[in-house]
Design brief:
The chain has about 250 residues and is α/β, with parallel strands linked by helices. The chain contains six helices and nine strands.
């Protein structure tokens, strides 16, 4: 005689995966320029702090061809472009990291010349400037060696750039608050930030000065949850097993 037996078993398992994407904010598609003081009074250690501060800002930005573009320049008695307006975050970071602050640096602080350099060299189409809104950060630890009228004239030229906002960041008590106010856009000291020491250039301070680049809420978190259900059915007939697996997401 022939014996036939059939058995069926079904098992179901469900797994849930949650992924979170953090964005600092929805950035305006603007051109952002950093003008960084590298005069002799800064020193190697303080410039290292400034570098990390700027890198922290850059890291938060949505840098892309259709988003934020970034340029970086240095100034003391002379001016240097680290990178023209770029849509590549990696290139911007590499450029910032490429500069080696020279030990024994005794260079002065020609802030007015730096502002003129920004207008004549970087805020030009040939340097990638898109003329669709811009934000400038001037970070310095002292007063310009030039006369007040020189700085004021250069500041006026920079403020004449189409749709520009200028933020002055002064570090240490050696800065001239009035000079920083002349450079910055806005009313009075609206766009002037003063800190006592370079160590005050913190994450919280980054968030404060980056806010003007944001269109909408700061600290945007997008959470995506995916649930996967897997059902396995095994049928055994006369010791021959057939397994069917169905996955549903």
């Amino acid at each position: 005689s022939t014996s036939t037996s059939t058995s069926t078993s079904t098992s179901t398992s469900t797994s849930t995966t949650t992924s979170t994407e953090f964005r600092f904010c929805n950035f305006f598609p603007i051109d952002i320029l950093f003008i960084l003081d590298t005069s002799g009074s800064i020193g190697v250690n303080n410039f290292a702090i400034t570098r990390e501060f700027v890198l922290g800002l850059v890291d938060k930005m949505d840098i892309s061809p259709s988003g934020v573009n970034v340029a970086v320049m240095l100034f003391n008695s002379a001016q240097t472009t680290l990178i023209e307006f770029s849509s590549n975050k990696g290139d911007v970071i590499d450029a910032i990291n490429s500069y080696v602050y020279p030990p024994g640096n005794t260079a002065g602080t020609a802030t007015g010349a730096a502002l003129d350099y920004a207008v004549n060299t970087l805020f030009q189409a040939g340097s990638g400037f898109r003329a669709q809104g811009s934000l400038v950060y001037v970070i310095t630890d002292g007063k310009s060696q030039e006369g007040a009228s020189v700085v004021a004239s250069a500041a006026a030229n920079l403020q004449a750039v189409s749709d520009v906002e200028i933020i002055s960041i002064g570090v240490t008590a050696a800065v001239d608050e009035n000079e920083l106010s002349v450079i910055a856009t806005g009313t009075g000291t609206d766009n002037v930030y003063l800190v006592d020491m370079f160590e005050d250039l913190t994450q919280e301070f980054q968030a404060m000065v980056l806010a003007p680049a944001c269109d909408g809420a700061i600290d945007t978190t997008t959470t995506t949850t995916t649930t996967t259900t897997t059902t396995t059915t095994t049928t055994t007939t006369d010791f021959v097993s057939t397994t069917t697996t169905t996955t549903t997401t």
